[in-house]
Design a protein that fits this description.
Blueprint lengths: L8 H12 L7 E3 L7 H13 L5 E3 L6 H12 L7 E3 L6 H12 L7 E3 L7 H13 L5 E3 L7 H10 L8 E3 L6 H14 L5 E3 L6
Parallel strand pairs: 1-2, 2-3, 3-4, 4-5, 5-6, 6-7
Helix pairs in contact: 1-2, 2-3, 3-4, 4-5, 5-6, 6-7
Amino acid sequence: MKLKRYHIGDDGVQLISNALQTNSTLTEINLVGNKIHTTGALFLSQSLTFNSTLTSLDLGDNLIGAYGVKLISQSLQSNSTLTYLNLEDNQIGDEGMEFLSQALKLNSSINTLDLSSNRIGDKGSNSIGQFLKRNSTLTQLILINNNINSDGVNFITQSLQINFTLTNLVLWNNFIGNDGIKSISEMLKINNKLNTLDLTSNQF
């Protein structure tokens, strides 16, 4: 189901979420750009707790914020069918990333996660590193246009000396610098499973 930029808001999400709790056929939902806030995230989290068929959820360009991510994260700890989650441009920040990290330590289904344009900095990068040390299902992580510098990259690369499941890491338009490149180089000496590493538009 594609409802991209229909501006359905939280009320519209409530109707969809109610249906998802009993629907057993729908596998994909695109809700990009629908002015979804924390309340809408609450409705979605409730549906994800009960739904067992949805595999793809695209929430890019909404306004769910850190607390909205916390609500969704709670449902991800028990959900075992969702494989694709896009949270791009949702004002998650470092606080929201910490909530999501706790869920991804336990989640066993998501293989693709897009966290682009969410103002994730050093603390959020540390949270990413922490869940990557525990997670064994995520294969693609997209972190375009965040505030990740050399320290943040170091947190992530340290985890990738342990995690050999991730195969695709996208770090476009961050601030990794020369020290970040050094951390990446050290990681690549150990990790031979990472197939794609995209560092476009970083300053070295």
